[in-house]
Amino acid sequence: MLDYLARSDVLLPAVPTRGQRQHGRRRKYLFGDILVLRALRALTSRGVSVLRLRPSLKTIRPVHAKITASKIPARYLLTSGDVVSLVSARQLTSELTNHGTATILLDLHALRGELLDAIKSGLPRSRTG
User: How far apart are the C-alpha atoms of 100 and 74, rounded to whole Å?
Assistant: First the structure.
């Protein structure tokens, strides 16, 4: 899945490595990248196409580095299937009204908690490449 996301320019590691596109290189992801990966997994399990989200995901890419184990710049990830927005709890009502009825809302604080629990319990090392 990571290869597909990188080749499709959907999600690239926030920590650049020399020769990033060469085989056998390890990718270095920040905490925010992994949280976004988990959000993408949740969206795809609900039938959302990551390729349709690609342009919108590129606009939030700079935010990945601001997501840490103790801080998230927005509470929710909101999507209508082709547009992704990061919104605070204050903005939620107006954003839900603007997105219409076919909206998926992910609580990033809950995803962060799940990720921290997984890290504490010892996440299995994923395959690189």
Answer: 20
